[in-house]
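=== RUN LOG ===
request id: a7f3
mode: sequence -> structure
chains: 1
length: 277
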Amino acid sequence: MTPVMSPKSWRWAGRTRAADRLFELAAEEATGALHLNGPWGGTIFLVQGRIDYVESVLTPGVEALLLRPPRTDEQSWAELVPALRRGETVETEAARSAAARLLRSQLASDIDAEILRRTASADAALAALGTAVPETARTRTRFRPDERHWCPSVRTFTVVDVLAEVDRRKAVLARMTLGIQPDRVVRRAPQLPIERVRLTATQWNVARAADGSRTAQDIAWQLGHGVFATTMVIHQLARLGVLTADQESPESPGPQMVPARHVLSFLRASAAGLHLE
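=== RESULT ===
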């Protein structure tokens, strides 16, 4: 059995006021929403002291991942994305209602919905608690008791689970080479280093979207995919010579390989391993 870690025993490199507040709420077994204010803001939903979901203005939420094409036509999706990214209330609420109807109609399975929910939550946790927050930022927090997220979850996570995943993702991003980062503009290479290269459907869609004006974050929103996963795909394409990043930075020392998919702890439950009641 995994031992329970206390705030004193958890040495998190990105320790912030928000993290300290999360540990306090976990100790109180609180249920509600912790709102983080400011341009890097987000909302962390807790159920009995465990993290149920995280959302951020910087990353697609589960409603966006559920409504992406082909469930929504391309034109409607193109019009919806800018409003969601700006956090416009009317459009966001409409998207959540549409996603809830989609789930009730069972056009998306419970397993698919849970996987997308975890993808969105992990992305948002990194944005709200990790790389998007400067060390000098003083994040204001406000807790609203009993506020719940609209999409019910299958499983909640401890604060330590989520912070450990934030640290793991930060380490993966730090080891990425060729200047690839979520906020770095990427473009297709003017010439391939080899005559032919075989791409997956996801790689092809990402490469098509990399027109020299978009970052990994922009491409993730455009495709309705997770930001972290999209950044990893872009890194793969850069190493193949298909894409290149603007304003390349020197390669960081240490291991150059991105960890394999099976070590992604926060999303470790596969479709076969999810137990839905």
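=== NOTES ===
The chain has nine helices and seven strands.
Strands lie at 32-36, 42-47, 50-56, 141-145, 185-188, 211-215, 243-245.
=== END ===
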